[in-house]
Amino acid sequence: MSFLKSILIILIFISLIIGCNNSEKDTGQLPADLVHNPKSASGIKTKNGKPVIKFENEMHDFGRVIEGEIITYAFKFTNNGDADLLITDVKSSCGCTIPQFTKDAILPGGKGTIKVKFDSSNRKGFQNKTVTVICNTMPNTKTLRIKAQVIVPEKY
């Protein structure tokens, strides 16, 4: 029994030594000199501009629609920042909602749209869907919403 205790103590000791020497391994984090954050703790203002996305409306209510209708809405936005705005992706919360967006850079002061198509087929009742815009702003996501009351026609 004392032999097993000795082996256990040696294994614990070796694992502590190996665990403490992992400080040289890659942690997967970026070095601080690669991150350009205009809100730096150093207090030094950077000359790097940043884009600012401003939507005219962040929510659209289609109202009452008949089940099976395909309806669209264009969310209009402006780049109110002082750097090019790049939209990298737009994701919807449901397969019934399909977003379309430009992959071109929006210059400062420039305008753009994100078109959202909603297919009400096989839906009924109140529908509340989200569209998440991922871009190079701070914060890097913006959530847009669409809603509709889908009415199922009565069958005679």
CATH superfamily assignment of the domain at 53-151? Immunoglobulins
Approximately how much beta-strand content do the residues carry?
35-45%
Q: If helices are DSSP runs of H or I spanning 4 or more residues, what is the number of helices?
A: 1
Instruction: Quote the distance from N terminus to C terminus.
Output: 85 Å
Oligomer category? single chain
**Main beta sheet strand tally, sense and closure:** 4 strands, antiparallel
Low-confidence runs of at least 5 consecutive residues: 22-36
Question: What is the residue-mean pLDDT, rounded to a whole number?
Answer: 83
Strand pairing plus helix content: what structural class?
mainly beta
Indicate the percent of residues in helices: 10-25%
Backbone CA Rg: 26 Å
Side by side, the strands of the main sheet go 1-3-6-5
Number of strands: 8
Instruction: Look up the CATH topology of the domain at 53-151.
Output: Immunoglobulin-like
The helix/strand order is HEEEEEEEE
- Per the principal axes of the C-alpha atoms, what is the gross shape? flat
CATH architectural designation of the domain at 53-151: Sandwich
CATH class of the domain at 53-151: Mainly Beta
